Amino acid sequence: MLLSAKDSVLLIVDAQEKLLPAIHQRDNVTSRMRWLAEIALQLDIPILITEQYPKGLGYTVSSLQEIIESARVIEKTHFSALQEDSFRDVLREYNKKQVVIMGMETHVCVLQTALDMKAEGYQVYLPSDCVGSRRPNDKDTAIARMRDNRVDIITSEMAAFEWLHKSGTDTFRHISRNWLK
């Protein structure tokens, strides 16, 4: 099934300062997360951000500061965001059936959140270029497990083009000016 901007919410899981230095290819991951989040903002797609125990792990990375200002940030202690009542309540407010999930670490909080969301009936999409783990094998294994559990594995560009739906619009022209970032 294709993504629809009107049916989607973007979820950034635990992209936190103290996790970032250990993440494999962190610059690529954070760059793609920022790029896709900026497109979501331009398309008025709601953005949720989780922070796993921020007192210990720090807050969301500063490169996403502009995104943070337009997002709803929810603190959590469970690895799966869906296990937090406060997150579940915020997600329900939007009444969206599609969740595009990205963040850190792929094999822990991203995986557990994605699988719980899938079990709850959400359509879950994972842009593989927007997730990171400390070790590549953990990321690869988590993506394979999510695929086996019917999470749609996509890329950031796939999400963007599906949200845009067609070229020739003012929105497409505006976004495509910065496409090759």
Automatic annotation (TrEMBL):
Keywords: Hydrolase
Stored CDD domains: YcaC_related
Segments crossing the lipid bilayer: none
Isochorismatase-like domain span: 8-157
Gene source species: Idiomarina aquatica
Signal peptide location: none
Gene Ontology molecular functions: hydrolase activity
Name this protein carries in UniProt: Hydrolase
Pfam families attached to this UniProt entry: Isochorismatase
Lineage: Bacteria, Pseudomonadati, Pseudomonadota, Gammaproteobacteria, Alteromonadales
Statement: the UniProt record of this protein carries the keyword Hydrolase: yes
Hydrolase in keyword set: yes
